[in-house]
């Protein structure tokens, strides 16, 4: 699939961003580390952009040094870190037995700007006017369902009627989510105007 996508028009590839989820333990278990590295390096040599992201979970703590070595040896940089949420609770807290301070101390050595941006915003309800659903969407390419963001219900199916315009229903000040857990996307895109966030 990577080869197929990278064979497309180079001007289109410049607009494409790959998120490579580093499922470290599973890749090791299935002996797929080399294939993973190959896929990342193919994209690295293309006009597309990419990131290597590790969802931090407590089971990975004993493997931190191995993960660092893997990333540095194969990509020349450490991976970014993202935060796992516990969806068995309605407020979607961090999925970890560690306190926030312990958590930061354990994972802080990766020096991930993404992690540093996300962590203080995790479990903090957003009440500002949000333009998700007007300026950005979450699209399920399997079904065609679109939603303002991950925490909202679908507002339209773009596969059922491809000639109709996409609906515009900004979240506004009515975010149904306990917190913006994918703030590293929606807030950095500028969906909350003047929010102090870096930009892509």
Unreliable residue runs: none
N to C succession of SSEs: HHEHHEHEHHEEEH
In whole angstroms, the N-to-C terminal distance is 25 Å
Total number of beta strands: 6
> Which structural class do you get from the secondary structure elements?
alpha/beta
Query: Strand share of the residues?
Result: 5-15%
Gross morphology: globular
| Percentage of residues in helical conformation | 25-40%
Radius of gyration: 18 Å
Mean pLDDT: 94
- Largest sheet, order of strands side by side? 1-2-3
Q: Give a quick account of the main beta sheet: strands, pairing sense, barrel closure.
A: 3 strands, parallel
Question: If you had to describe this structure to a student in words, what would you say it looks like?
Answer:
There is one protein chain. The chain is 28% helix and 12% strand. With 200 residues, it is an alpha/beta fold. The strands form 2 sheets. Strands 1-2-3 form a 3-stranded parallel beta sheet. Strand 2, helix 5 and strand 3 form a beta-alpha-beta unit. The model has no long low-confidence stretch (mean pLDDT 94).
């Amino acid at each position: 699939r990577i080869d197929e996508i990278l064979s497309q028009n180079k001007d289109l590839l410049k607009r494409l961003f790959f998120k490579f989820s580093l499922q470290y333990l599973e890749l090791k278990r299935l002996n797929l580390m080399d294939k993973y590295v190959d896929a990342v390096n193919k994209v690295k040599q293309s006009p597309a952009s990419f990131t290597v992201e590790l969802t931090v979970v407590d089971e990975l703590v004993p493997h931190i040094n191995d993960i660092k070595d893997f990333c540095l040896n194969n990509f020349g940089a450490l991976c970014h870190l993202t935060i796992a949420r516990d969806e068995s609770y309605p407020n979607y807290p961090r999925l970890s037995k560690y306190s926030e301070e312990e958590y930061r101390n354990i994972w802080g050595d990766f020096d991930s700007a993404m992690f540093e941006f996300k962590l203080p915003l995790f479990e903090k309800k957003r009440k500002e006017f949000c333009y998700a659903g007007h300026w950005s969407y979450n699209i399920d390419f399997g079904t065609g369902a679109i939603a303002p963001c991950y925490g909202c219900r679908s507002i339209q199916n773009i596969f059922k009627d491809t000639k109709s315009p996409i609906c515009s229903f900004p979240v506004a000040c009515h975010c149904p989510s306990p917190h913006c857990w994918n703030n590293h996307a929606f807030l950095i895109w500028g969906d909350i105007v003047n929010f102090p966030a870096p930009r892509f």
